[in-house]
Amino acid sequence: MRAYDDYLRWLYRGGHPNWFARLQNRASAWVFAAGIMPGRVAALEVRGRRTGRVISFPVVIAACEGDRYLVAMLGNEVNWVLNVRAAHGAAVLAHGRRERVRLEEVAAEQRAPVLRQYLRVAPGARPHLPVAPAAPLADFERISRDYPVFRIRPAVS
Predict the structure, then answer these.
(1) Which of 12, 37, 131, 133 is an S-S bond match for 119, by CB 3.0 to 4.6 Å?
(2) What is the pTM (predicted TM-score) of this model?
């Protein structure tokens, strides 16, 4: 398990994907968008804040207390988070079909239960968050400011 965790950390050393992770993310986004994988994964499509091009990124959807959420396992400064913020939450989730959504950022003090659920359903994120999936909620509260969480809402036309 340690070797696998080291591999996952290598993919995102410095908080950004290396060349292999970018290639892997493109392939995963395509597979997720096609709806081939389970429903808890999708491709997030959001307009780039600099280029204006639509960028597709694989994500894991965490269901918690009746809502769906996205979590940024690499923290506040990852491109998809910055792009979602710049787009005022406008995005598309693709999983067999395209769903226009609005992503609402969750306040840090409300993130802990979602972060815990996210670690339960996204094993690939575990090496990036310094908390065990079964840790007490207080441990998740301590790191909540460092990991953005977005509630998935239907897009308003």
Answers:
(1) 133
(2) 0.83
